[in-house]
Amino acid sequence: MIGGTCVRCSGRIAALQKETVAREKARQLSDQTSYPVIYRMLKGIVLCGVCLDALPLIGNDYCQRCGRDMEYQTCIGNEGLCRDCVHGEDGQILVANRSLLRYEEGEKDLLGLFKYRGDERLASYYGTLLAITVQRFYRSIGFTCITTVPLHPQRLRERGFNQVDLLARHLGVATKIPVRPLLRRTKDTPKLSKQRGRVSRQESMREAFAWDGNNMPCVSKILLIDDIYTTGSTLRSCARTIRGHMGPSCEIYSLTIYR
Description:
Blueprint: E1 2-5, E2 12-14, H1 15-29, H2 35-44, H3 49-54, H4 83-87, E3 96-101, H5 105-117, H6 120-138, E4 145-148, H7 153-159, H8 163-175, E5 183-185, H9 198-204, E6 209-211, E7 221-228, H10 233-246, E8 251-258
Parallel strand pairs: 3-8, 4-7, 7-8
Antiparallel strand pairs: 1-2, 5-6
């Protein structure tokens, strides 16, 4: 059986070969309760069996706060935190971040194609990866809404779209969680990839967002999504703005494709 074209290698998808890999990966990413849902999503994702098998999945040993794969990292203390989270700022602004994949070299070109061209097949692919991540880590949390990291108006005009909004749309359909814009970007910060060091990134993101939501419940659990968690500066800045408006009872979790 043949099932379409792989978004990563452009090869033909052999359904029988892929099903074996999908079952193996679903067992790796789930328990008995979530297995059927994750298996169906993996089976339907637009990847061939070889590319599905090669995904750099974050393992079961990860930082309890930022979601970093801890297989090759040092855990400090008894809280299961990586070194950055032990010594980082505003540890409680985000309850947790979770991601599905390590941001390895081979992933950068594909993400760049999505971010700057907005290929709809890649939006569906990445949206499915986020939906799998919700099932893996967050399925027991009753989120009030999904919201996104906004682009500055100038960057939005240049690019023509916000890739994270496309992800949110797919994730909202998959999870039945409403998507609501809550923030606007007030500071046109340099790309984080162009900034040197954690302190520089933290400073550039300070007061970079303003509240732009309305009619939100006083007590909420909000799922904040972006494509990559690097230092977490962007996500924490967003979370700080949301909590500044909603109050400390608002719990904010973040979700990214890559960590």
